[in-house]
């Protein structure tokens, strides 16, 4: 699936594009925001990630323009955080509204859910691949060598974070922030419980030592 990223912060845009590409998406990020409608109209992308605050026209105006000819899914990305901003985004034709700074696993889950609803016949669900592991986030399933284990939502998010940043030490506080959304907050003690349970399931795939602990720092694979 190909995603259009309309973001005026070049650094943030590059980081977002890198993260999306690491999870199997193709990314189009135009320098000229006025070409966004043209790209959509050509049928070159499947979903739009649209910043609200842009130079010249804002994201709301671009979305309203797109809605004149396309029902492509649109997710607003914005630092505006009031309910009225979200309501206005929906009235302009947006499908979802994600506040900055966003948590990448949560954003990925929302993208995946919106793509599944919008393209029900598009094929198999997105997979996260790392070495000989295959993670199916939508099903909460981890596969390796013909075997599989079922993961909870939190375990799936933890593993997705690690697979996305192999060799990098991820701090405990970063994990806690990644697992935060409107419904769940994982504190430090609960994080340890989830990590222990995840390691126990990895043992069933002969990978009990996959996740390493760096005391005083965090975890890595």
Give the overall form.
elongated
Number of continuous helical runs: 8
Structural class comes to alpha/beta
**Rg measurement, Å:** 19 Å
The number of E-state strands comes to 12
Largest sheet, strands/sense/barrel: 5 strands, parallel
Beta-strand residue fraction: 15-25%
Termini distance?
27 Å
Helix content: 25-40%
Order of helices and strands: EHEHEHEHEHEEEEHEHHEE
Q: Could you characterize the architecture of this molecule?
A:
- Helices cover 39% and strands 20% of the residues.
- It is α/β, with parallel strands linked by helices.
- A five-stranded parallel β-sheet has the order 2-1-3-4-5, with helices on both faces. It has a four-stranded antiparallel β-sheet with strand order 6-7-8-9, covered by helices on one side.
- β11 (212-214) and β12 (218-220) form a beta hairpin.
- α6 (153-164) crosses α8 (188-203).
- The longest helix is centred in the last third of the chain and has 16 residues, at 188-203.
- The protein is elongated.
- The relative contact order is 0.10.
- The model has no long low-confidence stretch (mean pLDDT 84).
- This is Stage 0 sporulation protein A homolog.
Q: Any key phrases for this structure?
A:
221 residues; alpha/beta; five-stranded parallel sheet; four-stranded antiparallel sheet; 12 strands; 20% strand; elongated; transcription; transcription regulation; WalR-like; OmpR/PhoB-type_DNA-bd
Secondary structure layout:
Layout: E1 2-6, H1 10-22, E2 26-28, H2 36-41, E3 47-51, H3 59-66, E4 74-78, H4 83-91, E5 96-99, H5 104-118, E6 128-130, E7 133-136, E8 141-144, E9 147-150, H6 153-164, E10 170-171, H7 172-178, H8 188-203, E11 212-214, E12 218-220
Parallel strand pairs: 1-2, 1-3, 3-4, 4-5
Antiparallel strand pairs: 6-7, 7-8, 8-9, 10-12, 11-12
DNA-binding region: 125-221
Modified residues (4-aspartylphosphate): 51
Protein name: Stage 0 sporulation protein A homolog
């Amino acid at each position: 699936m190909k995603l259009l990223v309309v973001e005026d912060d070049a650094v943030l845009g590059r980081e977002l594009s890198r993260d999306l590409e690491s999870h199997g998406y193709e990314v189009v990020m135009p320098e000229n925001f006025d070409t966004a409608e043209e790209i959509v109209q050509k049928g070159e992308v499947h979903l739009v990630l649209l910043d609200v605050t842009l130079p010249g026209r804002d994201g709301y105006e671009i979305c309203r323009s797109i809605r004149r000819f396309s029902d492509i899914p649109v997710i607003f990305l914005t630092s505006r955080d009031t309910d009225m901003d979200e309501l206005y985004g929906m009235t302009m034709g947006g499908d979802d509204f994600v506040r900055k700074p966003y948590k990448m696993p949560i954003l990925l889950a929302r993208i995946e859910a919106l793509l599944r609803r919008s393209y029900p016949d598009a094929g198999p669900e997105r997979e996260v691949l790392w070495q000989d592991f295959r993670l199916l986030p939508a099903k909460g399933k981890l596969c390796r060598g013909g075997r599989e284990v079922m993961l909870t939502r939190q375990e799936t998010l933890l593993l997705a974070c690690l697979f996305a940043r192999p060799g990098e030490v991820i701090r405990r506080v970063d994990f806690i922030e990644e697992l935060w959304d409107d419904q769940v907050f994982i504190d430090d003690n609960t994080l340890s419980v989830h990590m222990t349970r995840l390691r126990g399931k990895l043992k069933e795939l002969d990978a009990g030592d996959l996740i390493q602990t760096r005391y005083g720092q965090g975890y890595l694979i």
